[in-house]
């Protein structure tokens, strides 16, 4: 008969109101599997992302895939999401969708850069996002954040104070702040509360105890059975009311009937009282005195106190003599620390995770009879205080010790006499057991197959294990990862069955033993094997690596390694990314390697500062990623011009900081490359002709030549039509001064500091189509950009979209701080678009003779009369209806917006129109004999000689027989003749007067010129109207 504990509560029944005893049953019947549902996102979007491919929101979909290790140094990996460069100084949101709506309890984010940056969690409820968690400088509300490791890859866990009481499958995270740093997230896992909560909620609401009217159908026997089976998971808050639910057992109204109901329930409990599995599962606040519980029939106590974070009662007298399964019995019972040394555990077979995460448990259990235990997997994982003598345990039947002392940070007992002869799995057994340093050199590990992560982060361990027989081991992945004091002779090991040595000596900073005779012939994965093994420099040149497919990072930061491995057979290797990254002294001949299966050489020689070997004959035809490949390989200067790079898509940072390199790579086929950002940045000697490269698929050239101080090659014919980012592209290029005026930059959004400190640059880029330009801060600051070219830029950019009839972006910031301008009209057109322009001001003495010769209005209605000026002048009326009167010299007059009246006076005057909506101007004294001209070239940027002139210009007469020139800047013949003011032109045909859709942008009356049919062609043919 199961033991019960009684509590007095008030129970309401129909027709009466009385106080009755309600039985609260301690043992649980027929354990219900309450595994917490864990999901990875199936869809993702973000308020901003670095690009739509690299560091995009889509990278967060699914499980972590950056390859980074939790607790390892944070790294920038483009398989994680990061915000846009322009948004790093503000908060961003990441919205994630999951397949199944659940009762959300926890969110776990794999943060690969700047962990702990999540400040808010919102959950979709009824179509609206509701805030469930916030973190500010003042503290946290709605839950707690844990797992953050500053500067490390972290699984950041946000645990809500209570599981949500509504279903949802969509969350929104607010990430970042006003700090100038990126935030990167690889994946986000959603963890639900046990699904059993849904059942109890329903019964509770139907019972009437939720403040509603009881359901007419009442709770059934079957429902009550379910409640009894699970009620002990939810003894707190509203769930306790579930066992008070009305039943149809006879709808009792008296104490006798109540007793009948209680007997029914008791019978259910008694049937399976031997199974105490998950009895107090997840009861966060449960700490009742249950010392007198009758456990004599119990055989299964697995998960019994699982995450009972408050439980710490004396249960040392319990009779557990029949228990077989103690898997996770105290797992997560954080403060449990009672003396259970007298327990009879002689029948227990499974002790896996028994004390995992019981962070203060440290009781003497050294006399336990564990002779039948087979599974000790994770038994003391995260029992950070435990350090008792268990050296006499009989573990002769144990087959699984994986993670047994994982993060048991205090444990350092002599277990050297243990009989581990049947153990098959020792993976992570001492992982993060930072105090452990005992002699286990005599262990019989003959049966062990898996030693992966065995001594990872066992920072104190340095014992002689060289006599171990590891013949059966197949996995040594990360075996000595961060074992920073280990340096024992293991050169005699036979690792002939091992297939995985990845991360094996990762950051094993003092290891330097002769392992040159190892048989690695079955190894397929050597990735990061000697990463950070700072002193390792042994001869491993005779290794048979013929089956290895993954060598990424194998010598990454192996700062002492410089052995001849040129004879290695790397025929099957597919990944060599970061292979010699930061191997600063390595400089061996590997020219004969057959790398024709390699697809990834990202960062292969990054910071390999001594490497300078001839690898020009390598067949790199399958490589798709060469980003960072030779970055900061400061000595490298070999001929690689014949490489077949036709499959490469990423060359970003490839030659960054490669200060010696200056080889001819002009014949490379880069037609598939999409990313060239930082490619030659700080390549201070590179100056080769790459003008014929096909860069038509490249989208990012930011920082491409930044600080490439001698580069000055003709790249004017490059097709940059797909480029969107030219940020800092040619900044600090001291000598670059090539004609790039014909580039198609129509998709570029960012030209910020593009030519910043390009000290020699002075080219005409006025023809650039900048319709998508959003940022050009400091673009031409500290260049040699002349006033002439600046005026051309202002004129060209201000009318850039006449042809395709699209407006340029508003609110753009632009800088040319060393350069003065004279074309005030074009500059004003940009200011009218809310541009912010930083330059060196108006050049009003263009002849540098002390005489002002450029005059500008104030964008209102002006009269500027310079008829008596002693030299040629330039007049800019800017906005509104202006009157401009020139001198008796060869003047230039810009009417600007509005209906202007222009008088050139004597001299060969030029009337310039660069403003799309220039109004209806009158030129008072247009004089062919004096050489006057009308320059329409800026306005009619779509016109070519093969075009039909009448599609663009029409010359008509008004009532005074004066010639009136009508201009259609976009060349649309349907609106080629458009009349601004019908009343002024009464000599037109009825057809023209009846066209109500015409709305001419510009019309010019030549007041002193008589109209004739041949006049327009004469003016154009003789150069008095300039079209191109």
Automatic annotation (TrEMBL):
InterPro entries xrefs: DUF285, Hemolysn_Ca-bd, Liste_lipo_26, PAPPA_SD_C, Serralysin-like_metalloprot_C, T1SS_VCA0849
Region of interest: Disordered: 1-20
Keywords of the record: Calcium
Recorded coiled-coil stretches: none
Gene Ontology terms, MF aspect: calcium ion binding
One Pfam family here: HemolysinCabind
UniProt feature, compositional bias: Low complexity: 1-19
UniProt domain Pappalysin-1 SD scarf: residue ranges: 36-194
Protein name: Pappalysin-1 SD scarf domain-containing protein
Species assigned in the record: Bathymodiolus thermophilus thioautotrophic gill symbiont
């Amino acid at each position: 008969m199961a033991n019960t504990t009684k509590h007095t509560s008030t129970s309401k029944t129909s027709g009466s109101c009385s106080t009755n005893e309600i039985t609260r049953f301690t043992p649980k019947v027929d354990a219900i599997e309450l595994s917490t549902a864990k999901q990875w996102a199936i869809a993702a979007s973000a308020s901003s992302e670095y690009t739509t491919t690299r560091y995009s929101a889509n990278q967060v979909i699914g499980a972590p895939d950056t390859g980074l290790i939790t607790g390892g140094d944070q790294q920038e990996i483009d398989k994680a999401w990061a915000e846009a460069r322009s948004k790093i100084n503000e908060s961003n949101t990441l919205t994630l969708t999951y397949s199944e709506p659940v009762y959300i309890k926890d969110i776990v984010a794999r943060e690969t850069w700047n962990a702990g940056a999540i400040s808010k969690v919102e959950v979709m409820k009824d179509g609206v996002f509701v805030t469930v968690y916030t973190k500010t400088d003042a503290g946290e509300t709605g839950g707690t954040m844990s797992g953050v490791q500053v500067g490390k890859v972290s699984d950041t866990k946000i645990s809500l104070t209570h599981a949500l009481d509504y279903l949802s499958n969509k969350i929104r995270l607010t990430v970042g702040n006003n700090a100038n740093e990126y935030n990167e997230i690889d994946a986000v896992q959603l963890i639900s509360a046990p699904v059993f909560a849904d059942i109890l909620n329903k019964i509770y609401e139907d019972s009437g105890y939720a403040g509603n009217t009881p359901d007419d159908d009442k709770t059934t026997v079957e429902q009550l059975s379910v409640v009894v089976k699970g009620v002990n998971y939810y003894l707190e808050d509203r769930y306790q009311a579930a066992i008070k639910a009305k039943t149809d057992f006879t709808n009792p109204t008296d104490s006798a009937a109540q007793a009948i109901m209680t007997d029914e329930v008791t019978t259910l409990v008694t049937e399976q009282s031997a199974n105490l599995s998950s009895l107090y599962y997840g009861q966060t606040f449960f700490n009742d005195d249950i010392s007198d519980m009758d456990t004599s029939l119990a055989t299964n106590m697995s998960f019994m106190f699982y995450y009972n974070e408050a439980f710490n009662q004396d249960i040392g007298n319990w009779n557990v003599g029949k228990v077989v399964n103690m898997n996770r019995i105290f797992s997560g019972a954080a403060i449990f620390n009672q003396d259970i040394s007298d327990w009879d555990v002689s029948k227990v077979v499974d002790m896996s995770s028994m004390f995992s995460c019981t962070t203060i448990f440290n009781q003497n259990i050294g006399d336990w009879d564990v002779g039948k235990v087979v599974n000790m997997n994770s038994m003391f994982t995260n029992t950070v205080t435990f350090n008792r003598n268990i050296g006499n345990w009989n573990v002769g039947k144990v087959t699984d010790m994986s993670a047994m002392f994982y993060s048991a940070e205090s444990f350092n007992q002599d277990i050297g006499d243990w009989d581990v002869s049947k153990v098959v799995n020792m993976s992570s057994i001492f992982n993060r057991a930072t105090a452990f340093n005992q002699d286990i050199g005599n262990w019989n590990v003959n049966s062990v197959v898996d030693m992966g992560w065995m001594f990872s982060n066992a920072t104190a361990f340095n014992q002689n294990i060289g006599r171990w027989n590891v013949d059966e081991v197949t996995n040594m992945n990360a075996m000595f990862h961060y074992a920073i004091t280990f340096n024992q002779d293991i050169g005699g090991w036979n690792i002939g069955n091992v297939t995985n040595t990845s991360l094996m000596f990762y950051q094993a900073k003092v290891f330097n033993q002769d392992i040159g005779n190892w048989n690695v012939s079955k190894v397929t994965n050597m990735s990061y094997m000697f990463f950070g093994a700072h002193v390792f420099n042994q001869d491993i040149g005779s290794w048979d690596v013929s089956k290895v497919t993954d060598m990424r990072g194998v010598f990454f930061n192996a700062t002492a390694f410089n052995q001849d491995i040129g004879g290695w057979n790397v025929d099957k290797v597919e990944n060599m990314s970061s292979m010699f990254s930061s191997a600063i002294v390595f400089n061996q001949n590997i020219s004969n390697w057959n790398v024709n299966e390699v697809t990834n050489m990202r960062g292969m020689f990054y910071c390999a500062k001594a490497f300078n070997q001839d690898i020009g004959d390598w067949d790199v035809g399958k490589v798709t990623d060469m980003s960072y490949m030779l970055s900061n390989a400061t000595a490298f200067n070999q001929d690689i011009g014949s490489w077949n790079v036709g499959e490469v898509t990423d060359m970003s940072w490839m030659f960054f900081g490669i200060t010696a390199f200056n080889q001819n790579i002009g014949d490379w086929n880069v037609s598939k490359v999409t990313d060239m950002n930082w490619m030659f940045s700080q390549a201070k000697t590179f100056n080769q002709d790459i003008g014929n490269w096909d860069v038509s698929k490249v989208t990012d050239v930011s920082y491409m030549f930044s600080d490439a101080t001698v580069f000055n090659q003709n790249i004017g014919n490059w097709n940059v039509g797909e480029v969107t980012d030219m940020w800092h592209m040619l900044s600090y290029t001291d000598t670059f001064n090539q004609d790039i005026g014909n580039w198609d930059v129509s998709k570029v959004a960012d030209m910020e500091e593009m030519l910043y400190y390009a000290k020699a640059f002075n080219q005409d880029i006025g023809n650039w189509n900048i319709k998508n330009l959003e940022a050009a801060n400091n673009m031409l600051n500290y260049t040699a950009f002349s006033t002439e070219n600046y005026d051309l830029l202002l004129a060209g950019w201000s009318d850039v979209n006449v042809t395709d009839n699209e407006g340029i972006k508003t609110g753009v910031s632009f800088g040319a701080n060393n350069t003065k301008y004279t074309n005030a009209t074009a500059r004003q057109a940009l200011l009218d678009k809310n541009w912010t322009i930083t330059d060196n001001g108006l050049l009003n003495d263009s002849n540098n003779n002390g005489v002002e010769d450029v005059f500008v209005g104030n964008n209102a209605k002006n009269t500027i009369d310079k008829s008596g000026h002693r030299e040629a002048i330039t007049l800019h009326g800017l906005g509104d209806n202006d009157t401009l009167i020139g001198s008796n010299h060869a003047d230039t007059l810009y009417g600007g917006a509005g209906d202007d009246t222009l008088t050139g006076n004597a001299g060969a005057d030029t009337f310039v129109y660069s403003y799309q909506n220039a109004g209806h101007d009158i030129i008072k004294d247009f004089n062919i004999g004096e050489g006057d001209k009308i320059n329409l070239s800026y306005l009619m940027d779509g016109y070519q000689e093969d075009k039909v002139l009448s599609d663009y210009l029409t010359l008509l007469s008004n009532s005074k027989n004066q010639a009136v020139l009508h201009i259609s800047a976009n060349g649309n013949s349907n609106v080629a003749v458009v009349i601004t003011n019908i009343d002024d032109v009464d000599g037109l045909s009825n057809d023209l007067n009846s066209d109500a859709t015409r709305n001419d942008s510009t019309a010019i009356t030549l007041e002193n010129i008589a109209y004739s049919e041949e006049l327009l062609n004469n003016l154009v043919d003789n150069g008095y109207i300039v079209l191109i």
